């Protein structure tokens, strides 16, 4: 019997590893790829350096008047700087900014445990955030009680309004969406068709017509003399619209729960609502968190549409700032600023939902 | 005997309100009653409110004179036309921008989706950057950007950016030559028709011949040659019966040629780029859904990369791509309503905007507008259901 | 068809050697997967390749039809050397059939269409002829009645037999099997192995990566043991199992024969 001694590993031929090997297989593998790579590099050379110097190198960061930017060829971030408070808080009285800060600070503090692995009461905390947190936030924003001065909704604006609209949209649409999803899966024909018609109607029309409807038709629907807030009307429109999308997401989750779970719940003698509330929904909702995050991203971007019915969300308030005769001609800076904020929010949320999806998938496979 | 009878007798009947069937009927009656009551209240309130404000009801306003002009129309339109015609004009403008947008978005989306999967690192990186940037910025912001930050600040017509004395880009839009068909152009069209018919026949023949003898035929090259060559021949034979109407710079404006107004251009660019990013993702996920084993098996059987793509990968990828693609088309069509924000005269801007403001007949106008979008959505989702049924892979 | 005959008659220089691997090396990045592989397979020979997981068995047989590229050494199949040349690759792939662990049938085509695809598009056969040939092979693997079904409607064993028939439709000289039974339930393994045994008896040149030692004992002319990217031992089955030469082989055999 011979004793086997394995051959030592040899290094690969030089041309296939290292920087050269990498370039060869990833950039210059064929003549066509070589041409494409060179073209792409040329394109990058043409665009990236000017953008970098406009945004950073040649940009003006200090000063607080238009004159500070007069001599530079880069971006004039002074424009954003002098209006940053407005962009964030809208027309909220400056002395009351702390209320908005407190509201969002609270959300962050409450939200952190949700992402901690070891925290046990995630469900309860989430329920608290969905039910009580909005009430607290409304008190903080609107005031009128507890010695807080009242701030009209027409003063709300900027990024805080954008967040509020998106938040209300998601919080209000979740319960409605769950009910609609259950209704659509119901065996009762009338309940089912009502839900189908409701869902398909909202999904079939553009949000902008919904906003028009809520701003011009809603007042007609109500008894004479009732007149209510423009912001509230927009919120109702957004919530109804969003609930239809939410319903479809939840329905996907309900469909993904194996039949055995429904049967097991029934076999335990649980009533419909108990089996839904205790067994099916907790599982289904967990499954659809990535889907909910994705609809939230869509909603977050869609809130900009309130600009068209005259509310001042982040985009609208920036757009409105362009009209300032002191600051004409700085629209690109404004748009870039708005775009970066929206981008950071949406991109990070989409990454989060992707990582969740991955986790769920591995959970199912193994 | 008596015992047996008892065992097969029906189960004892519970009280009425405990029976699921009764409960469900009762609950549904309640629901219908609720909806009817709710609908009726709204109806009465609305009638009251309208009467109070002195707004008429019904669709009579559609025959009234509109009295306003529209920036861009595909039908002849001026102030003397009716509100009914504003609806039509707006609808056509919506369909125009949606159709063009779908075309460009599909083009961008497929190129970018394939590029993202490229073996070429830099190309796939660039595609990723494109997708991640434009997907995550609100569409309205992009529309406003292209309109207010890019196209509007362009110089006026007199300082147009000129390419070749044929294209003029200014804040009035992109002016370009329009074709003028002269006598004899009909033959070119006829030639094109003949070439199309011939191509179909050739494709059929080639298919039949391959079935029968196995010989393959370069159908694609032949068809391209035919469709380009035959009309070209007719064009030359008739003495080139086509001329161009070039745009000319006049004192204050441009004359002649055709123009893409900046509103349309901004909307189109934003819609195509935004939706293109989503389509790219759909294309990518579709291609990735075809497992690597499929291509390997095809290669092992001796199929070339091109045939593998055509016979194995694409048919499977399309099952994933097409449903997502149609839903993106639907989104694009609905999103084209953001035209309102920059004044492109689409259905929402013209009809739900100006016409509504002038007539005040919110209920009718909004209902008509929504009905259009609903009809488009429903017909597309009906197509989708049909398609999904047809392509479903047969599983046990 | 005539092309094929030409090349196979060219290769007679070294007797009737079908596959020749000389000093083949392969790397995945920095990882040395195949180390100095030397192997000759003569026409009609049946070879079983075994070895622990990750030892490079799949990689080696996938180099034979160029699903993987080797970076050093020579691989000659039926007189055609595998290089970057697309013509050569096409030539070799026409002659070499492969059966995968996970079948890799095309789910959007029926069983019959799966079998006809390559003959029609690669061998340029008329459809009628290709279908007739395919039915013949489907009968050989004993599932002609499933021809109109889709792969998703078949059991694992049936799918694998379709995959074998699909490869045979190209009329290959060599068949490669990469663990064809390891994704199957025990009762289905037998039907696939029976098909493979029948194929072996008909004189097909076969290279099988498999852990079915019973199959190796009854069918193989030669058993090859691989570990760490090398061929450690090759011998005829009786000797291989009863009198392994290397300590590494002995260890491996004792491990798999325990169960
Ligand atoms: N595409 C790849 N990139 C990098 N490493 C790879 C790749 N494919 C295989 N390897 C590595 O090469 C080694 C040999 O892989 P191979 O699939 O040939 O093993 P095997 O003997 O077939 O094992 P098994 O019995 O598990 O199929 C393994 O260590 C594997 O991790
Ligand atoms: Mg393997």
| Mean pLDDT over the full residue set of chain B | 86
DSSP, total strands of chain C = 10
Radius of gyration of chain B: 30 Å
- Structural category of chain C is alpha/beta
Structural class of chain B: alpha+beta
Q: What is the overall silhouette of chain B?
A: globular
Task: Tell me, rounded to a whole number, the average pLDDT of chain C.
Answer: 88
Level of helix content of chain C?
A: 40-55%
Strand order of the largest sheet of chain C: 6-7-8-3-9-10
Q: Which small compounds were modeled alongside the protein? A: adenosine-5'-triphosphate, magnesium ion
Query: Could you give the order of strands across the largest sheet of chain B?
Result: 1-2-3-8
Summed up, the helix count of chain C is 10
Number of strands of chain B: 8
Provide the gyration radius of chain C in Å: 18 Å
Percent range for helical residues of chain B?
55-70%
Q: For the record, give the distance between the C-alpha atoms at the N and C termini of chain B, rounded to a whole number.
A: 47 Å
Kindly estimate the percentage of residues of chain B that lie in beta strands according to DSSP.
Answer: 5-15%
* The top level CATH class name of the domain at 83-149 and 269-391 in chain B: Mainly Alpha
């Amino acid at each position: 019997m011979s004793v086997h001694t394995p051959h030592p590993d040899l290094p690969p031929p030089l041309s296939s590893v290292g920087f050269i090997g990498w370039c060869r297989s990833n950039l210059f593998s064929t003549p066509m790829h070589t041409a494409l790579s060179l073209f792409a590099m040329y394109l990058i050379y043409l665009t990236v350096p000017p953008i970098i110097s406009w945004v950073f190198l040649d940009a003006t960061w200090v000063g607080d008047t238009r004159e500070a930017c007069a001599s530079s060829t880069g971006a004039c971030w002074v424009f954003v700087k002098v209006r940053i408070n407005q962009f964030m808080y809208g027309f909220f009285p400056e002395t009351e900014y702390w209320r908005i800060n407190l509201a969002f600070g609270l959300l962050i503090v409450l939200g952190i445990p949700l992402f901690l692995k070891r925290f046990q009461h995630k469900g309860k905390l989430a329920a608290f955030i969905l039910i009580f947190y909005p009430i607290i936030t409304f008190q903080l924003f609107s005031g009128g009680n507890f010695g807080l001065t009242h701030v009209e909704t027409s003063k709300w604006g900027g990024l805080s309004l954008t967040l509020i609209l998106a938040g209300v949209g998601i919080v209000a649409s979740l319960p409605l969406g769950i009910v609609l999803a259950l209704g659509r899966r119901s065996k009762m024909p009338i309940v089912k068709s009502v839900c189908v018609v409701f869902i398909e109607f909202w999904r079939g029309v553009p949000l902008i017509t919904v906003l028009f409807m809520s701003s011009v038709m809603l007042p007609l629907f109500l008894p004479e003399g009732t007149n209510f807030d423009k912001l509230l009307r927009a919120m109702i429109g957004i919530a109804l619209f969003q609930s239809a999308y939410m319903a479809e997401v939840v329905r996907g989750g309900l469909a993904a729960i194996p039949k055995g779970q429904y049967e097991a719940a029934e076999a335990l003698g649980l009533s419909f609502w108990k089996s839904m509330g205790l067994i099916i929904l907790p599982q289904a909702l967990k499954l659809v968190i990535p889907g909910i995050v994705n609809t939230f991203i869509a909603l977050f971007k869609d809130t900009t549409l309130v600009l068209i019915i005259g509310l001042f969300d982040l985009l609208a308030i920036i757009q409105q700032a362009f009209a300032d005769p002191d600051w004409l001609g700085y629209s690109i800076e404004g748009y870039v600023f708005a775009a970066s904020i929206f981008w950071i929010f949406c991109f990070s949320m989409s990454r989060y939902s992707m990582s969740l999806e991955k986790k769920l998938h591995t959970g199912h496979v193994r | 005997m008596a015992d047996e009878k008892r065992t097969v007798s029906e189960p004892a009947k519970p009280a009425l309100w405990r029976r699921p069937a009764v409960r469900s009927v009762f609950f549904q009656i309640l629901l219908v009653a609720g909806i009817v009551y709710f609908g009726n209240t709204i109806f009465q309130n609305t009638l009251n409110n309208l009467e109070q404000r002195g707004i008429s009801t019904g669709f009579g306003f559609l025959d009234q004179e509109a009295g306003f002009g529209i920036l861009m129309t595909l039908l002849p339109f001026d102030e003397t036309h009716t509100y009914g015609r504003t609806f039509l004009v707006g609808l056509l403008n919506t369909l125009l921008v949606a159709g063009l947008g779908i075309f460009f978005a599909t083009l961008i989306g497929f190129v970018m989706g394939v590029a993202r999967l490229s073996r070429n690192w830099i190309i796939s990186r660039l595609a990723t950057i494109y997708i991640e940037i434009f997907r995550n910025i609100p569409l309205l912001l992009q529309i406003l950007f292209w309109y207010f930050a890019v196209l509007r600040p362009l110089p006026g017509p007199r300082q147009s950016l000129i390419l070749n004395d044929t294209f003029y880009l200014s804040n009035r839009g992109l002016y370009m030559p329009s074709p003028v068909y002269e006598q004899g152009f009909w033959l070119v069209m006829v030639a094109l028709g003949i070439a199309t018919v011939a191509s179909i026949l050739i494709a059929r023949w080639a298919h039949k011949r391959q079935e029968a003898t196995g010989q393959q035929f370069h159908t694609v090259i032949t068809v391209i040659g035919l469709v380009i060559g035959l009309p070209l021949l007719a064009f030359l034979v008739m003495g080139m019966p086509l001329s161009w109407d070039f745009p000319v710079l006049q004192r204050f404006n441009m004359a002649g040629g055709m123009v893409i107004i900046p509103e349309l251009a901004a909307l189109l660019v934003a819609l195509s780029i935004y939706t293109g990013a989503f389509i790219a993702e759909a294309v990518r996920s579709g291609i990735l859904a075809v497992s690597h084993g499929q291509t390997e098996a095809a290669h092992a059987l001796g199929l070339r990369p091109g045939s593998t793509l055509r016979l194995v990968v694409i048919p499977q990828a399309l099952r994933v791509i097409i449903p997502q693609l149609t839903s993106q088309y639907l989104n694009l069509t609905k999103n084209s309503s953001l035209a309102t924000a920059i004044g492109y005269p689409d259905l929402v801007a013209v009809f739900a905007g100006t016409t509504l403001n002038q007539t005040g007949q919110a209920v009718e106008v909004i209902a008509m507008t929504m009905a259009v979008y609903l009809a488009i959505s429903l017909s597309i989702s009906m197509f989708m259901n049909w398609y999904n049924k047809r392509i479903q892979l047969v599983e046990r | 068809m005539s092309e094929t005959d030409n090349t196979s008659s060219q290769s007679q220089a070294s007797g009737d050697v079908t596959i020749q691997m000389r000093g083949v090396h392969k790397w995945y990045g920095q990882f040395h997967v195949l180390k100095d592989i030397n192997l000759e397979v003569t026409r009609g020979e049946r070879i079983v390749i075994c070895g622990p997981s990750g030892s490079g068995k799949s990689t080696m047989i996938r180099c034979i039809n160029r699903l993987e590229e080797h970076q050093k050494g020579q691989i000659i199949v039926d007189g055609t050397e595998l290089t970057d040349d697309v013509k050569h690759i096409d030539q070799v792939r026409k002659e070499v059939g492969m059966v995968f662990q996970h079948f890799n049938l095309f789910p959007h085509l029926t069983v019959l269409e799966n079998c006809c695809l390559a003959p029609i598009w690669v061998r340029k056969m008329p459809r009628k002829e290709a279908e007739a040939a395919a039915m013949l092979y489907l009968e050989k693997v004993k599932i002609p009645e499933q021809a109109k079904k889709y792969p998703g409607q078949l059991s694992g064993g049936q799918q694998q037999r379709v995959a074998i028939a699909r490869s045979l439709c190209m009329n290959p000289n060599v068949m490669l099997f990469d663990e064809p039974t390891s994704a199957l339930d025990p009762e289905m393994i037998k039907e696939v192995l029976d098909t493979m045994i029948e194929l072996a008896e008909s004189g097909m040149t076969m290279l099988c990566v498999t852990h079915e030692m019973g199959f190796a004992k009854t069918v193989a002319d030669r058993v090859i043991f691989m570990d760490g990217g090398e061929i450690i031992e090759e011998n005829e089955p009786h000797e291989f199992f009863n009198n392994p030469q290397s300590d590494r082989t002995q260890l491996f055999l004792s491990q798999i024969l325990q169960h």
